[in-house]
């Protein structure tokens, strides 16, 4: 669905239980990707591993500014990590000779990343869009 939406090279970031970053070349081929823990998993890990730190997941906000309080420092660190994996995906695909790389964000936490990427496509139901596309293609073959 993402390739057919932009018609070329794209980086698809799905933000759910895990965050997946998939690289699609200009001809629609999958060029690999990355999988990292999602926001809830990261914050739960911090809460369970550091007994003196309890981060309220509902208060999480993306920020790259260094935090002066523990929760803000965690938010900034997690934001930096997530943006780093997205930026690396864009860099890898751009470095492979792709001229114009589009960014597509999807999943439950995609809006949190969208504030850093004003030109990204924000498509909450990309998986369902993909199913509609594939089912449409299958019915055309019958």
Number of helices: 5
Q: Termini distance?
A: 21 Å
Shape: elongated
In the predicted model, the low-confidence regions spanning at least 5 consecutive residues are: none
The helical percent reads 40-55%
Spatial order of the strands forming the largest sheet: 3-2-1-4-5
Largest sheet: 5 strands, mixed
Q: Determine the structural class based on helices, strands and strand pairing.
A: alpha/beta
Radius of gyration: 17 Å
What is the arithmetic mean of pLDDT?
86
Number of strands: 5
Helix-strand string? HEEEHHEHEH
Strand content: 15-25%
Overview of the structural elements:
The chain is an alpha/beta fold and 142 residues long. Helix content is 44%, strand content 20%. The protein is built from 5 helices and 5 strands, in the order αβββααβαβα. It has a 5-stranded mixed beta sheet.
Q: What features would you highlight for this structure?
A:
single chain, 5 helices
Compact overview of the structure:
The chain is of the alpha/beta class. Helices cover 44% and strands 20% of the residues.
Describe how the helices and strands are arranged:
Elements: H1 2-6, E1 10-15, E2 18-24, E3 30-37, H2 39-49, H3 70-95, E4 102-106, H4 110-114, E5 121-122, H5 126-141
Parallel strand pairs: 1-4, 4-5
Antiparallel strand pairs: 1-2, 2-3
